[in-house]
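Re-run with default settings, no changes from the original entry. Doing this only to confirm the output is reproducible before filing.
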Amino acid sequence: MALAAVLGLCLGSVAGAGEFTLTPEESQRVAARQIVVRANLDSGQRRGTVRAAVRIEAPPDIVFQMMIRCADALQYVPHLRSCEVRDRATDDSWLLVEQEIDFGWYAPRVNWTFRAELATDRSIRFRQVSGDFKANEGSWELEPTPDGATTLLLYRAYIDPPGFVPSWLARSTFRRELPQMLKDLRRHCEAEQTQRTAGGASPH
């Protein structure tokens, strides 16, 4: 499981961070396939609350499964080098996931383990239980259109990266890598939906 979400410096939402309601202008941008990102960061621009939204032309079950499979996360999460499910509920209501993030020579590798609470095809909530982040808690909400064919994916996060991660690198994850990750996630989900449609497969 990957929890794109939850993946690296790019993911998360914290209880108490406030609901994420799109403004009319943001709704128009999302409808036009733009990525909406709001960031409320500290003066050093390295920690704080981040919100994001993306419209994906695929039903929630495809998006949800794409986000909880480690093999898929390695394809679209920046700098993610390993992802392994360490434990899981017998009813798949939660997962315990260990990940490693590699920024190359810019910083030491980041290791963390998080617990993800899953509401199938609806939401993913996670929090670090051990690892290098000072704080990394979050949630992804999946909102289908009335016909169920399209998903509005909403992300809210509070992240405080490890002290050894340079401030410029932390800023880059918020400003550039999070939007790119959401674009790549959308591309993978929509490609899977295309394959499903072409193959006449029924939703699983």
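The beta strands are 36-41, 48-56, 80-88, 94-101, 110-119, 123-131, 135-144, 151-160. The radius of gyration is 16 Å.
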